[in-house]
Design goal:
The structure is a single chain. With 223 residues, the chain is an alpha/beta fold. It has one domain: Rossmann fold (3-Layer(aba) Sandwich). It contains 6 helices and 12 strands. α1 crosses α6 and α5 packs across α6. It is globular. The protein starts with a strand and ends in a 5-residue tail after the last strand. Bound molecules: 5-O-phosphono-beta-D-ribofuranosylamine (GRF). 5-O-phosphono-beta-D-ribofuranosylamine (GRF) binds next to α1, β5 and α6.
C-alpha cells in the first residue's frame, strides 16, 4: 500500500508529533512526514522533528495582519507537497473557514475530551469540576465549527480520586499517543473515507466513533 504523505502543524511540545514519528520509525505506520510547521519558534516539537530528520518551518502568526493571510501562508507551504493528510497536533490557532475548506476531508485534529463534551480549552479542569467519572480524547476530521467535525476514534480515561488537571491531562495524553497514529494508519489503509460529507469505516457510515479500549480497537462490528 502507498506510503501516506503527511504535514503536521504544531504549536507546543509536540508529544503527539513524537508518537506519530515513533509509529513511523517502528514500521507501525506506513507514512512520511514531509513537513512540520509551527506558529511558534520556541515550540519543543521543532526539535523533535529535526532530530528525526524532518523538514520544519516556523510561520509566526504575529507576522501576519489577519488570520486569513496567516492561513494563506501556510497553504502556500503545504500545497506543493500535496499531502494526503494535514495533521493538527497541538496547533493552538483557530483556522479560517478558507483553510478548512481547502483541506476538507484531509484535515485531522486531536482534542483532549470526549467530544462533543468540552470543546475549546481547559477540558481537563472542566471534567474535574463536573465530577465526571470518565474523560478522554478524540480524533476527528475538522470542519468549520470548532472541535465539531466527524469523529474517528475516542479513548476513555477514568477520572481518579485526587486527580487535578495536570495528572488527568497526563493520563489522557498517553491515550492520545495511541489513538492519533492509529487513526492515521486506518486512513492510510483505506479503511476511512468520505462519501459526500459522511465518514465511512470500511463500508459502514461511522455513526459512532471507533473506540480504543484496553489496548484494542473497537470497530462498529464489535459494538
Ligand atoms: C494535546 O493535549 C492535544 O490534544 C491538544 O494539545 C495538546 C498538545 O500536546 N490539542 P503535544 O504538543 O502533542 O504534546
Amino acid at each position: 500500500m502507498k506510503k501516506l504523505s503527511l504535514v503536521v502543524l504544531i504549536s507546543g511540545s509536540g508529544s503527539n508529533l513524537q508518537a506519530i514519528i515513533d509509529a513511523i520509525q517502528s514500521g507501525e505506520l506506513n507514512a512520511e512526514i514531509r513537513l512540520v510547521i509551527s506558529n511558534r519558534a520556541d515550540a519543543g516539537g521543532l526539535q523533535r522533528a529535526e532530530k528525526a530528520g524532518i523538514e520544519t518551518r516556523v510561520i509566526d502568526h504575529k507576522h501576519y495582519p489577519d488570520r486569513e493571510s496567516f492561513d494563506r501562508a501556510m497553504i502556500a507551504e503545504i500545497d506543493p507537497l500535496q499531502p494526503d493528510l494535514v495533521i493538527l497536533a497541538g496547533f493552538m490557532r483557530i483556522l479560517s473557514p478558507a483553510f478548512i475548506e481547502h483541506f476538507e476531508h484531509r484535515l485531522l485534529n486531536i482534542h483532549p475530551s470526549l467530544l462533543p463534551r468540552y470543546k475549546g480549552l481547559n477540558t481537563h479542569q472542566q471534567a474535574i469540576d463536573n465530577s465526571d467519572a470518565i474523560h478522554g480524547a478524540s480524533v476527528h476530521f475538522v470542519n468549520v465549527e470548532l472541535d465539531s467535525g466527524p469523529l474517528v476514534i475516542q479513548a476513555e480515561v477514568p477520572v481518579l480520586p485526587g486527580d487535578d488537571a495536570k495528572t488527568l491531562a497526563a493520563r489522557v495524553l498517553e491515550q492520545e499517543h495511541r489513538i492519533y497514529p492509529l487513526a492515521i494508519k486506518l486512513y492510510g489503509e483505506g479503511k476511512l473515507h468520505f462519501d459526500n460529507n459522511t465518514l465511512f469505516y470500511e463500508d459502514q457510515p461511522l455513526v459512532r466513533p471507533l473506540r480504543w479500549k484496553d489496548g484494542q480497537l473497537i470497530t462498529p462490528e464489535h459494538v
